[in-house]
Prior knowledge:
The structure is a single chain. By secondary structure, the chain is of the alpha+beta class. It has two domains: 115 residues, Rieske Iron-sulfur Protein, CATH 2.102.10; 258 residues, Naphthalene 1,2-dioxygenase Alpha Subunit, Chain A, domain 1 (Alpha-Beta Complex). It is built from 15 helices and 22 strands. Strands 13-19-18-17-16-15-14-22-21 form a nine-stranded antiparallel β-sheet, with helices on both faces. A four-stranded antiparallel β-sheet has the order 6-5-4-7, with no helix packed on it. A three-stranded antiparallel β-sheet has the order 1-2-20, covered by helices on one side. Helix 5 packs across helix 14. The longest helix has 19 residues. It is globular, with a radius of gyration of 23 Å.
Amino acid sequence: MTSAKANDSIGALRRNLDAGSGAAKPRNIDVSPLIDSDGGLIDRSIYTDREIYAQEMRRIFARSWLFLAHETQFKKPGDFFTTFMGEDPVIVSMDKEKKIRVYLNSCRHRGVRLCRADAGATKMFTCTYHGWSFDLAGALQSVPNETAYPDTFKKENWSLIEVPRVETYKGLIFGNWDKNADSLEDNLGDMKYYMDAMLDRDPEGTEVVGGVMKWELEGNWKLAAEQFATDWYHVNMSHASALMVLSPTGKGPKADIAATPGRQHGSENGHGAGFPTHPKSRFDAKMVHDYYDYDFLRERLGDDAVEGPMTTGHATVFPNFSYLPVNGSIRVWHPKGPDKIEVWAWILVDKSMPQDVKDAQRLYNLRTFGPSGIFEADDGENWSEIQAISGGFVTNSVPLNFQMGIGSEREDGTYPGQTSELYSDAAGRAFYRHWAKVMNTPAWHETN
């Protein structure tokens, strides 16, 4: 059996296992009563209910485009990086033809984690349990004591399970378990315009520097993803002390900057981006700011992109990839249960930047949105506080308010797609509207 055929068998194998073991079929919950996106009300149980979380694994993470890594993490055949798609561990690697391939990080023999290193280079993936070895194309090559197996045992039937769809967008690598999913670019749609303000400033592209930072937070993954999609509203309150530190006077930004105008994009596919349009809304490292040729950028990206989504904005690609265009932070909110997130963050820079400018960007990133950054700590505290009290019976029965900006969504003639005011919950409503749609639609493994 080829890797492709092995992938085709995943759904059938699961159904057969369930039938043979007598295991109860998972209950699919109709989440429609929990999401009133038109009225701007969200049921808090979507952050705490374990059955809803399990359904997210089946219907959100098993068929969405999920960010895996950046192309510059792979330079030669054998380079690999281990990560997750939902809670499924995967190996991202470059094969001998320099093609990026993604495999389930589970040995086909007894199912132990095949590759335990975070990243590295190898010629073979060898299991430390019984020694089964797989090549860079996922094929089983070596089985200790193979003669003890029956004649019906064929190594070609036991290749690694391969993620069937792997596509990139301007250096970002995404994977999808659904072989019939829309293309990555079609899924991104209008969101590409907002992403380009970070990914397409340099004709040579981008690269990641400094490794991957990882830390855990108490909170549901949607709290983080939704905030990065929609919530500028919290900035002046939650980050007040950090804004004072960064302001020239030490008193915080001037009133016209604090109340900056701006726009917010909410996609029908759940993506979201918000950004100020005040000319001084750039609290990035001065060396980085001075490096940019803004006339060149206006010619390359357009005036509106430079004055909008290239500024101090925030964004999420549904479901769990977020980024901050000014300080070059890209991150994944890995779900680790309904009440825990593992954050993985990279620092993204333009390839053409001189080394001292790259260093300035990296240090600025660490000081602001690194694991102990002056802004990052505020956000994590908010999410953990929401989660900490959400188990209460009465607390969990009170709906949450997402009504800011209702009715303001429109085609504004400047920015692609539906946009709203910067101070709005429009992208949050779009995020949960799409979440509910996907949660209520059978996935590929339920219909094949």
